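Subject: Re: docking follow-up (zinc ion)

Dear J.,

Thanks for your patience while I sorted out the input files. As discussed at Tuesday's group meeting, I've set up the holo structure prediction with zinc ion included as the bound ligand rather than trying to dock it afterwards. The sequence and the ligand SMILES I used are pasted below, so you can double-check that they match what you have on your end before we go further.
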Amino acid sequence: MKNNAVIGIDIGGTGTKLAIIDSAGQILERSSFNTQAQRGGEKFIAAITNSVLELQQRMSDTHTIIGIGIGAPACDELSGTITGAANLPFTETLPVRQLVEEQCGLPTRLANDANVAAIGEGQFGGAKGMNNYALVTLGTGLGSGVIVDGKVVIGNHGLASEFGHTFVVRDGRKCGCGQNGCLETYVSATGIKRTVFELICQTTYDSPLRNYSFHQLSARDITQAAQDGDFLAQEAFRLTGEMLGYKIADLIVLFDPQAVFLAGGLALAGSLILDPAKKSLEKHTIAMFKGKSELKLSELGSEDAALLGAASLIYRR
Ligand SMILES: [Zn+2]
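The structure tokens for the complex came back this morning:
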């Protein structure tokens, strides 16, 4: 008898990854293609469906594919569409869910990548069995997914939980969204770089980070420097973690979660970001919530979290 499996798809600006994933969260087969090489909506959809059919073929003797889950940036979960953006190879609004479902003949679900990561944490990671939790992804920007009473908070326009664009500093740093002082301008891989450069300007600390240009410097370099004992890098993490904890106190007051998880590139810094965030959260949590919600690191490896989350869109139904 054949086993059931799901195809998870992670659409990213550089690469689109696909994998066949079983119900235990094991990745059985993988493929990928260069997102930018598929210019135009039609070519992009064809690249997805060809990869799906090819993967399905590879496992056809042992597994039955029961559905396709897709995680993508800038998508509308309510209509199943993705609107072209600077980092995608098309400009129009594409009904991706419907096209993939029709062309592959499999039930297809599409969700925002931060929501997908949150669902994956519940299916395969540290949030197993939790009905109320949130996940914050610290990548180029700051994304979040909030689960309340077992359901992802979607909102009236499919736009809920844009935590990265809540304000943290009045008239603060300019954000890509057009506003000033949004959380992600401070707390994200890009945000911590901006903090490092502020510290470089405002202090006289000796630091290897002074040798980098803004574009050269990565969150990984800052993590490495902090782990090697560099004070300026450690200070950047302390400031970033403090601001994160301060705003997670808001999330807790709003949603009363059992736990909040940190995922994404910057979360790989582990205690460097987690410790100051916990301390600040503790300080800013009001009395009735004290000791009730835990702040933790995601238990899914950053490498495959997006694919596991995408597969969870089918498994959790
Ligand atoms: Zn913003």
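A couple of observations from a first look. The chain has two domains: 3-120+304-315, 130-297. The two ends are 23 Å apart (CA to CA).

Let me know if you'd like me to rerun anything.

Best regards,
T.
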